[in-house]
Amino acid sequence: MTLLRLSPTGLARSRFALSPLAETVGQLIAFQRTGTSSAYREWTARDPVAAGLLGLVATTKWFPDFVGVPPTGGVDTALDGELAEVAAFSDDDVRRTLRDTVAASAARRDPDWLPSGDLAPRIAEVFEEGWRRFVLPTWPRRRAVLEREITHRSGLLAAHGWQRAVTGMTRRSTWVGPDAIRFSDQRYSDRDIGDQGLLFVPYTARQGSWTCEHPPRYALVYPARGAAAALEPTPTDPLSVLLGPGRARVVAELARPATSTQLAAALDLSLGTVSGHLAVLRDAGVVTRSRVGRGVFYRLTERGEALLGLPSV
User: Fold this and answer.
1) Are 17 and 71 in contact, with CB atoms under 8 Å apart?
2) What is residue 71's three-state secondary structure?
């Protein structure tokens, strides 16, 4: 197994962050692996660099360094800054890190799709176009999901410490001893996280995690919703039959507390529609609300949690 070892100062300075680049990488990998997006297939069919790069990244256990760039702006990280860091890699560095990536790939193909020069700027262009085509149109909704995840994990951190906050981030992540996080079952070298601390970066795909490493900066990218994504009800679920599909979706989303604005963004509904559902659910004793700072957060009551646990038919 592979560990992230944190010094006391590094642990104290660890925090959550957002990364538009990580969100883009996660979405493009999901498209590559599932083949469900015709727009993605058409784009990569026309762009051999995009097809070669993303085909490799989706099949490797070792991300190239220019993909795993840790964010620098906390929750306000801008894609332009991340892409500038990608584009700054030298041609020699790109080729070197790709050799490691190919060696760890199930495909094990030579990267013959690489252009002859200016490799990193061309790779940055692929990610910029992937962002523009597939992530930017839904970024407000995605960001709302990510902010909810950070709020949820921050609450666990405040109440129980990092050990509880880290547990369940990925299928393998767990606290080991007093100062280390297991993030992989692969036998790679442990990482010693310095005094800058570790960034925890959620993204909205359902599975897959990776580290971003640019010493002394490190980040762990993990799925924002995990098991909660599976709680979306179908029209035949008992919850939908009992409450109606609209209110059932609200209850499922409230597996983690959220504001009405966050719910509207996550469910792609108007704020008025969400507020109406919440009013009915409050009157029924299914949800309650409380003010946290400047926001009003809704959460399930015991009755709501019992409803969410209805068995499938």
Assistant:
1) yes
2) coil
Question: Could you read off the pLDDT of 97-133 as tens digits, one per residue?
Answer: 999 999 998 877 778 899 989 999 999 999 999 999 9
**Structural domains in the chain plus CATH codes:** 2-17+140-226 (no CATH), 20-138 (no CATH), 232-308 (1.10.10.10)
Q: Residue 228 is encoded by which pair of tokens?
A: 């909660």
Q: Write out the DSSP string of 82-135.
A: HHHHHHTS-HHHHHHHHHHHHHTBSS----TT--SS-HHHHHHHHHHHHIIIII
Structure tokens at 310: 């209805």
Q: How many residues can be counted in the chain?
A: 313
pLDDT confidence of 312, banded at 50, 70, 90?
A: very low
User: If phi over 0 gives left and psi between -120 and 50 gives alpha, with beta otherwise, what is residue 98?
Assistant: alpha
Most distant CA pair in the chain, distance: 65
Neighbour count for residue 242 (Cβ, 10 Å):
12
**Average confidence (pLDDT) over 161-183:** 84
Backbone torsions φ then ψ of 72, nearest 5 degrees: -120, -10
What does the H/E/C string look like for 241-308? Answer: HHHCHHHHHHHHHCCCCECHHHHHHHHCCCHHHHHHHHHHHHHCCCEEEEEECCEEEEEECHHHHHHH
Q: What is the pLDDT at residue 226?
A: 41
pLDDT number for residue 267:
80
Q: What is the mean pLDDT of the chain?
A: 87
CA distance 250 to 255: 9
pTM for the full predicted model: 0.76
Q: Per-residue confidence at 230, pLDDT binned at 50, 70, 90?
A: very low
